[in-house]
Design a protein that fits this description.
four-way junction DNA binding, 17% strand, 225 residues, hydrolase, ATP binding, 9 helices, alpha+beta, single chain, DNA polymerase, domain 1, Helicase, Ruva Protein, domain 3, 3 domains, OB fold (Dihydrolipoamide Acetyltransferase, E2P)
Length: 225
Amino acid sequence: MIGRIAGRIDYRATDHVLIDVRGVGYLVYCSERTLQALPRVGEHVALYTDLLVREDILQLFGFTTLVEKEWHRLLMSVQGVGAKAALAIMGTLGPDAVSRAIALGDWNAVKAAKGIGPKTAQRVVNELKDKAPEVMAMGASPSATTAPVADVPVDEVIETPMAPPKAPAVQENAGAQAEALSALTNLGYAPGEAAAAVVQVAGDNPDAGTSDMIRLALKSLAPKG
């Protein structure tokens, strides 16, 4: 599995780029938002990638962050959402707004993507809502990486790097609180409201990781009744 690819952009199209890696051209499909973030033809780029394997085709999809890649993978797990529809959702909303829409159950935001009807949008929210805290934790973590887009060796094609070693439990919990607070404020909650929820959750669940802390804080912040 090719987890990351780096090389020189040979040409750009409306939905993909051709990346030259040591004389081999890789066709990488990207969302409109990702394409806009890439450098010009002739410059170097690095993208996290996902390989879609079907009986009649092999397709590489490229992403600037691991969070974007993870959301694309999860979106494709929903019935009726293929690779093209997942790219449309990511291109319309971006990873942060996708996290926000799914965590808050805002299927109308998902429906704004081209080709996504109301039933599919509701299915996306219903099926992925429990997954949102985990992906949001990836984005809130200081260790969340973005593939560099400059000064990248043209011959570099490597697998997705392994996760860094875990920190001690006390430090990990303190970091989890900060990351959960960051994720909640990104969702639009007031800092004071988010902080109160995180403190309460941390007090009741001292061993909770970031994703569990986000999930429990969202539960406590949800409207009652």
